[in-house]
Each structure stands twice: as structure tokens, then as C-alpha cells.
Amino acid sequence: MNVPTNGPLSGGDIIRQFLPTSPYVGHLGMHITDMQPGMATLTLPFTNALVTIGKVVHGGAIASLIDTTAMVAAWSDAEIPAKVRGSTVSLTVTYLATAEQEDLTATARVLRRGHSLVYLDVEVQGTTQQMVAKGLVTYKLG
């Protein structure tokens, strides 16, 4: 992750600069819809490339949305660590309903922030506002 060192940066600044340059995020078409301290919402636009069978969005695309949204929320109000890096430590996904040929929105909220670990809850909804999946994520900063 290359981050300019012009003046003080926040975790939110870092993630706003990083996310649009991520090849994987770009490949899936995810983008930030909202970001506030301790919370983030991302959208995954539907494309046929996300389909597993018929019109159903692949569970791996949904898991990627959960993981990426948690990362954004973890950085949203984080203090900048000595080493600007992060990684998912744990990701649990519960699929609640199929998503068929629809855009998905995920909202992540910080449940607890430790020294370097951030614990997050993520909800994924389709365009009908039906809950599609729920995720619990542990993310490590630094």
C-alpha cells in the first residue's frame, strides 16, 4: 500500500487512497458508499461475472464484500500504526438468503477495538432490503 506522506493522515484517508487502487476491489467493482468513524458501507454492483449458477450471486463474491467492508470500517477511525498494513485474521459468514441478479450493500460496524485487533459485525442486503448474509470479522492493523 503506497501512501503519500504529505501531512498527517488518518486511517480514513489511507483507506480512501488505497481502495480505488486495489486490483481485486476494482475487478469486483466494489466502492465506498459511506464511511464514518467505526462504520462503513460498500456496494457490490451486480454483473454476470458474479453468478455461480442461474442468476445467483456467488457466495465468494459476498464473502469478499464482507471482508472488504470490514477492512474499510476498521481503518475508518484508526490511529496510523508504525507499519501501515492490515490483514483479516478471522472471517465467518452466515448466508441467510440467495441474492439473485441484484446489487448488494454491506454495512460494517466496529464492535470492539483493541491495541491492534478490530472486531466487526457486517450485514449484507440486496436491493429489496432483504438480509442476504451476516459476517463476523477480526481485522489486524499494523
State the main characteristics.
single chain; 142 residues; Thiol Ester Dehydrase, Chain A; 6-stranded antiparallel β-sheet; two-stranded antiparallel sheet; 3 helices; 23% helix; 41% strand
Any idea what the CATH superfamily is called? Answer: Hotdog Thioesterase
β-strand percent reads 35-45%
**Treating each run of at least 4 consecutive H or I residues as one helix, how many helices?**
3
Q: Under the CATH scheme, which architecture would be assigned?
A: Roll
Helical fraction: 10-25%
Sequence stretches where pLDDT stays below 50 over 5 or more residues:
none
What is the CATH level 1 assignment? Alpha Beta
Largest sheet: 6 strands, antiparallel
Q: What does the radius of gyration come to?
A: 15 Å
Order of helices and strands: HHEEEEHEEEE
Give a quick summary of the entry.
With 142 residues, the protein is α+β, with helices and mostly antiparallel strands. 23% of the residues lie in helices and 41% in strands.
Describe the fold and architecture.
With 142 residues, the protein is an alpha+beta fold. It has one domain (11-141): Thiol Ester Dehydrase, Chain A (Roll), CATH 3.10.129. 23% of the residues lie in helices and 41% in strands. It is built from 3 helices and 8 strands; from the N terminus they run ααββββαββββ. The strands form 2 sheets. Strands 1-2-6-7-8-5 form a 6-stranded antiparallel sheet. The protein has a two-stranded antiparallel sheet with strand order 3-4. Strand 6 and strand 7 form a beta hairpin. Helix 1 packs antiparallel against helix 3 (59-76). The radius of gyration is 15 Å and the shape is globular.
